[in-house]
Amino acid sequence: FYFFPVLSAKLKEVGDKYSFPSRCFGKNIVFFKESSKDKITFTLQNFNKTETFCSELFIFHTSNHNFFQFVAFQGEHEITIKRITQDDKDEIKINGVKLYKFCSGFINTIKSVFRSVKAFYGGMGLDPKAKNPKFRPTIHVDMEKANLRIMELFNYYTPERRNNTIVNIDKNKIKSGDVIVISRMDGIDPMIMVGSGGHIGHCCVCTWMDDDLYVIEAQDALYWPRNGIQRNKWDDWIQWAHNADFNVALLPLREEYRQKMDFEKANAWFENEVEGLNYGFHNFLFAWADTLDRNAPVFLTHESIELVMSLLSKIYPKFSDLLVTEALNMRLGTKNLTIQQAIAEAARRGKSFEQLMAEPEIEGYEYSDGLNYVCSCFVIAYFEHGGLFGDMEILPNEFTPRDVYILDIYDKNYERPQECIDDNPELPYCQIMGKFVLKLDNYSTIAPYSHMNERCPSEGPDFIRDEGC
Q1: Taking Cα atoms as reference points, which of 111, 120, 171 lies closest to residue 144?
Q2: Which residues, 6 or more positions from 418, have their beta carbon under 8 angstroms from its beta carbon?
Q3: What is the spatial distance between Cα 157 and Cα 6, in angstroms, rounded to a whole number?
Q4: Can you tell me the distance from the alpha carbon of 86 to that of 245, in angstroms, rounded to the nearest whole number?
Q5: 265: number of Cβ within 10 Å
Q6: Are strands 247-251 and 179-183 parallel, antiparallel or unpaired?
Q7: 3-state secondary structure at position 354
Q8: Distance between CA atoms of residues 359 and 331, nearest Å
Q9: Average pLDDT across the chain, whole number
Q10: Is the backbone peptide bond immediately before 461 cis, with ω within 30 degrees of 0?
Q11: Is 335 exposed, middle or buried (0-12, 13-18, 19+ CB in 10 A)?
Q12: How far apart are CA 203 and CA 247, in angstroms?
């Protein structure tokens, strides 16, 4: 992921000046030279070249404009961005014109892209309309290695290997409210782990309905037979999970919290209000992005998200709308603004893009495809609607998968079935399957409280969680 450009300067008004080093030049100076009715001009100076044949690419960026400046020789360059509108000027006052540099040369950047793609390639092998759930989307050894490398580099965590066997736990020993946590070496889960600092990328909850045990979850992956918010019988789910190369552990809910739950009410909420809804892509980034800083892996920042999404909005607007644009509109109380218009409107209200991203995700936001829950938000919403949190004010949409398992609501004195003990005597919960041991950092340590996780940083290497955030 070192192909992502790095922010070097924010130029908000004429006269702003920044100095910074780069890969090819010991010193660079950028200066906001002038602003007229419909254009702005900058001067970029490059000094002290480090290598004779070294060259660099810089990007001058607003949400609506991208000027690429290639520099091979030291000296002075003038950059003019034309067709500047009032929206652009409003945005620049708050967000500035951002100058990005790349960490590597062209060849190494391309190598980085291919190494990153390896982590995702091969992980989406099952047509969601396929009738045969026995199809096994194999995670190739190179894909697995790439994902382990991501976790080592950015999550500072390397899971231990285990025999990939299914622990055949009697489903009658599983109770409503028990939580299932999952990791998969498919690119997506490790990215979720990097963003949250956790050791899982997916979670579900168990419930008994109609005299049978079901797993209910928010799921959307091409290797899974069904998409969206769904329920599946335990026996089916276990086989599909094994087919998909899941690492799975069962976390038993503590009895005092199980007694607080009205499962009839929670199941009615599931059946009547959310079952069949789409997976919550609109909520995907916002459960993680809670603060203006200390909230991103080393290769990504809030500014990088804005750069990527505004670029994507010009190439594939449906994707940027899905992940960011509609959510920005929700926070502004507007409708159908493009990402560029939303950023400009926020700026007129004195808010930067980063501030807008950090605003909590309110449960009940009605997106174009209805309510939105990613897996962890769905699990917490299920508990909330069942009364587990009592009178506490909890925003389910602010919980990452890690936030789910660090909640101090699980039975750490769980009398595990013998088959679980035989498989791994050290774990306080039962790992059911997987090639890798699921060791959950800070498992069941944070007691629930009102407004939790609304302002929590998640930055490596320690992923320190501020008290009371």
Answers
A1: 120
A2: none
A3: 24
A4: 52
A5: 12
A6: antiparallel
A7: helix
A8: 7
A9: 91
A10: yes
A11: exposed
A12: 11
- What are the distances in angstroms from CA 434 to CA 80, 159, 223? 55, 11, 16
Which of 114, 122, 127, 154 lies closest to 141, judged by CA? 122
- Per the model's pLDDT, the better-predicted residue between 87 and 108 turns out to be 87
Q: Model confidence at 130, in pLDDT bands (50, 70, 90)?
A: very low
CA angle 180, 235, 278 (to 5 degrees): 60
Q: How far apart are CA 381 and CA 375, in angstroms?
A: 10
- pLDDT tens profile 392-403: 999 999 999 999
Instruction: Tell me the pLDDT tens digit for each residue of 202-225.
Output: 999 999 999 999 999 999 987 888
Average pLDDT over residues 59-67: 95
Q: Are 230 and 276 in contact (CB under 8 A)?
A: yes
pLDDT greater than 60 at residue 264: yes
Give SS3 for 256.
helix
Both tokens of 263, joined, read 């499962």
Structure tokens at 193: 């782990």
Closest alpha carbon to 136 in 249, 248, 242, 247: 242
- Nearest-angstrom CA–CA distance, 409 and 48: 58
Q: How far is CA 297 from CA 175, 197, 294, 324, in A?
A: 37, 9, 9, 18
| Helix axis angle, 141-150 to 106-118, nearest 10° | 110
Q: What is the pLDDT of residues 345-371, one digit of tens each?
A: 999 999 999 899 889 999 889 999 999
Tokens representing residue 42 in the block: 């900058």
Contact at 8 Å (CB) between 43 and 35? no
Distance CA 143, CA 328 (A): 34
User: What CA dihedral angle connects 430, 432, 437 and 441, to 10 degrees?
Assistant: -40
What value, to the nearest 5°, has the Cα angle with vertex 298 and ends 102 and 408? 160
The per-residue pLDDT for 127 is 42
Sign of the CA dihedral with 325 first, then 327, 329, and 332 last: negative
Tell me the Ramachandran region of residue 392: left when phi exceeds 0, alpha when psi lies from -120 to 50, beta otherwise: beta
Residues 123-160 as b or e (16 or more Cβ within 10 Å = b): bbbbeeeeeebebebebeeebbebbbebbeebbebebe
Q: Do the Cβ atoms of 411 and 240 come closer than 8 Å?
A: no
The CA-atom distances, in angstroms, between 135 and each of 43, 239, 244, 467 are: 58, 11, 9, 45
What is the spatial distance between Cα 117 and Cα 120, in angstroms, rounded to a whole number?
Answer: 5
pTM comes to 0.91
Give yes or no for a contact between 444 and 408, defined as CB atoms under 8 angstroms apart: yes
pLDDT for 117 equals 86
